[in-house]
Write the structure tokens for this entry.
Amino acid sequence: MRRYCRSWTMSLILMTGMASATSPDSADKDLIAAGKYLATAADCGACHSSPLQGAPMAGGYGIHSPLGTIYASNITPSKRYGIGDYSEQEFARAVREGIDKHGHHLYPAMPYTAYNKISDKDIHALYRYFMQGVAPVDVAAPQTHLPFPFSIRASMAVWNLLFADDQRFVPATGKSAEVNRGDYLVNALAHCDTCHTPRNFLMAQQNDRAFSGSSLGSWYAPNITPAQNGIGSWSSAELVQYLKTGHIAKAQAAGPMAEAVEHSFQYLSDTDIRAMVAYLRQLPVVNTDSARPRDGFGQASDAEQRLRGQTAETDAGWQVFSGSCANCHQPEGQGNTRYPSLFHNSATGAGQPDNLVAAILFGVQRTVNGESVAMPAFGPDADFANRLSDRQIADVSNYVLKNFGNPAVTVTAERVKKLREGGDTPLLIKLTQPAVLICFAVIIVIAPGIFFIRRKRRLYAAR
Amino acid sequence: MKVDADVIVIGSGVMGGLVATQLAKAGKSVIIVEAGPRIKRQDIVERFRNSPFKMSLTNMKLQGVGSPYPDLPHVPSTYGDYLQQSGPVKYPTKYLRVVGGTTWHFGSALWRMIPNDFKLQSLYGRGRDWPFGYEELEPWYGKAEQELGVSGMDGQDESGHGGEAWPPRSTPFPMKGLEPSYLFKRLSELLGKGGYNPVMEPNGRATRPYGQRPACAGNNNCNPVCPIAAKYDGSMHIDEAERHGARLLDNSVVYKIEADDSGKISGIWYRKPDGSDHHLTANYFVLAAYGIESPKLLLMSSSERYPRGVANGSDQVGRNLMGHTGISMNVMMNEDVWPGQGPTELLVYLNNRDGDFRKDFPSYKIKVRNTVPTADYAASLIAKGVLGSRLDEQLKLMSARSLNFAIDFETLPLAENRIIPSKNKKDAIGLPVPEIYYSVTDYWHAGKAQGLRDFDNFAQLLNAKISKIDTSYQDRQHIMGTTIMGDNPRDSVVNRHCQSHDHPNLFIAGTSVMPSASCMNPTLTGAALSLRLADYMLKTVKV
Amino acid sequence: MQPDKLSRRRLLKGMAALSVSALCATLFPGRLAAQPVASADFTAVSEFLVSRAVSAVLSKRYYAALAHHHADFPQRLAALADYLRAQRFPHVDDFLQATAMASPLFQTASLIIGSWYTGVVGDGANSELIAYADALMYQPTRGILVVPTYGSGPDSWGNNPDTHPSGRSV
């Protein structure tokens, strides 16, 4: 009887919920639109919309973190499989504190440490958008099961105590409204720091070196402080265009940044983009790598003149370059109006080759304003006829770095393999590998145990 | 009895690739046996660039040199003297024995046939009817277009009359058509004044990222090779088949298909480059080695029980060889039109593609080559002593104004036009090379006369000067008819399901089954038939 | 920098080299009258013949290939260089007009120009490719036509190149 009553009540609520989803009044419509804009700025869809064919916000997208695959949840207003029965407070707690309706901790793949700063007003708009502006999808997203010890969600409580704030955004005194707006966009919504700020041993952000660059799996989120090899040599116009379109002459957004441009930044207003740029330009400079701008390297290569038609063994890197890359990037690496030049290019001139190698491995895909940009992948996903081996990718990367990029940077086949497999394993993971845990267990438990047993025996023998 | 695989597919071109993929996806164990090697795109591109002779199908002067594809002792290049000619008209076709097959170098024109193409005999008293009509093949054309990634302009009248959309389609093109270059736009304008209706060719060049393929970027080198893999080639399906569990044996030249006394195909023999012979068995076999090697293999597979070769109860194997024998014209325009931008082909004229005239002369297509043979121009100018600033001027002028128009004529299935294994010449691993007898009839010559009239009209409408007319029976590398399809086992090799009349567990995939040639590039038709036969194998035969 | 005259500085350099070798020839009459000249002279002559600055890298390669394929090439080059120096043509067109096509000088010029333009030295089965994208035959249409295999980009055609050089359809 109770069960029957409950399901009947549920259907009533569901119907009411659906009814309200179908006919908001105009003030409502504005609020929902504001919520949608905020959700775009915060790029909820980047994780919560599956790129393959899922409905928006229905989850199911597996985020390949170094700890394992974390599945984004269904955040449509489905009562059964989504957040349809979340109150606004519960919604706020999930978004800002990383704790769901049932008290379970979310993994910080959900950037709640950033969203913590979102204002009450914006949380309200986001809530209304998710409840009324998104279609409910009654499909369960897969559960996340991380390996021990990360399967213990409660451990997030300790991590949060150490590293998570619980504070709304407070505008900085003495800074302009534009800079403060940019601060809010960058830190509360777009959570740029979660990629661009380096992390410590426990994988928390090193905020004293904020925005100075960090590895992100196979890719590298560069230094975006006004350092020389950060954005110091970029004009505001260049930064604005880069964020809005994903490319300028000297830089092309690829990998995760291409996704950010495609799903989020291309939709933000010009005012907001300019505010973000204004904020970034006044960040404290954090110097990393060289003092030379990343786009300050290289020149057109004369390799085509020297090596074309040579039957003897020539530069292995050039051979790959000529057969696989020059078709678009042109024989001297100079590109044209549609393909980037490889010299004076921020990816080839960087202090680490990660983005160069990742672009070759995985390609570049970016659709902005309906126009698709596509550099094919030459790594494991490529067809046999086009695929390059780790050795070939190392060779061509070294050719590109030496001729067009930062000649101090080199690439080995082993490094290509590492990047191909998802990048460096964070120390935390290395130390929590079963083998390592067993060693710890031995050291912590068994060794002292042996010591005490021996001591007992000696004492016994001594008696 | 244990077999090596559920299905053996002979040939790893587009047809074998499509069939293998469908079967592998359905969980069947598949072995694909390919005579030639795997190739890497960048190697072919570089070999092309490094060759002192820049040869392509649109620019074939020197025989035997310049093809960037492998020329190996166990798979000698068809660009050399591998094919023997014994008839009054040469049939110098060019196919590629590599993993992925001939689509590596094809122009990627992917046309459907139109309904009347299936009824040449009953409508026009010529050639043969197909055992079924366009409607039967229509859904398979749609599937083939999806599989190959075809870009095309919806709504065109592909019968050439400038009318309503034709043929009827149940699905739109998977991708919108390529933007016509200035050349195509200008020609359309000028020739339109003479009633010539422009038609843009549906083709296998992506116009947006499609799977792994980027959009066509105007590298203008479709033949011999697309450097960026925007153009479809068969290796893409071989990769997909392998991803679904199919196994590929490369550098394995099948030389014998064995049939047992009950008529069942029991196995194949293949030879490796080192001369060693190997045997494989399966329950079903799909022969997909294109129109010269497939019949050659069947004819080589003779035995006491099958003295005329396997699947040849009709004595039609190797016969009915058809092509799109053609003519061409070079003109010099009086204005700059700039061929060489974008894809190497797109615009065609089909005013004589279909109509009652097919009783008297064949269907034909007129196309314009969108390539610039700069090396030829430079060589001929320099040989004539044109140097200095005149050399630059003339190079620019010829590049901007010299055009090549070509006509492809439908040809008829004649029993005497055939390929047989050579009786006196063998390749390096001891297998007979193909010997081809080919000829054309008055029907073709009547077509030629019509075509020449069109050429004259073109020159007038374009205000262009004709610099050359070539009527020397040009080959277009479209091989059809040599394992012809029909309802009657006495005059056909396969039935309407592309299944051998004589051996129910043998299927033939590709253009060699086509009973009529139309004037259109046959790849899409072969692909549609291949998908259809794979479906038949799975759903009806229950492989 | 597009010299259409054989630049004086280059000529002087070449002359110096020639003078020394000429001197040597007088002192050592046993030696050949026209010495194999340094490829600096080849560059100067080439630039005059093709009316463009040429790549130093390619110049070396073409010279070596031509000397390899034609045993008498150094002498032919020297003879042509002497002739050009003596006649002081302002432009290659003037040289072409003044010289009979059948003459060895014209033939040498044609050989050099042919190599630079086609990117190929030698004949038939002995042909050697030195340049492809850099072959000068692609220069007159540069910016309008691609060198085949190198793409201009998706949708980069459609306009009349003579009136809308950007390429993309308006």
About this structure: The longest helix of chain A spans residues 434-462. The domain at 312-427 of chain A is CATH 1.10.760.10 (Cytochrome Bc1 Complex; Chain D, domain 2). Strands of chain A lie at 62-65, 68-71, 214-216, 219-221, 247-248, 251-252, 364-368, 371-375.
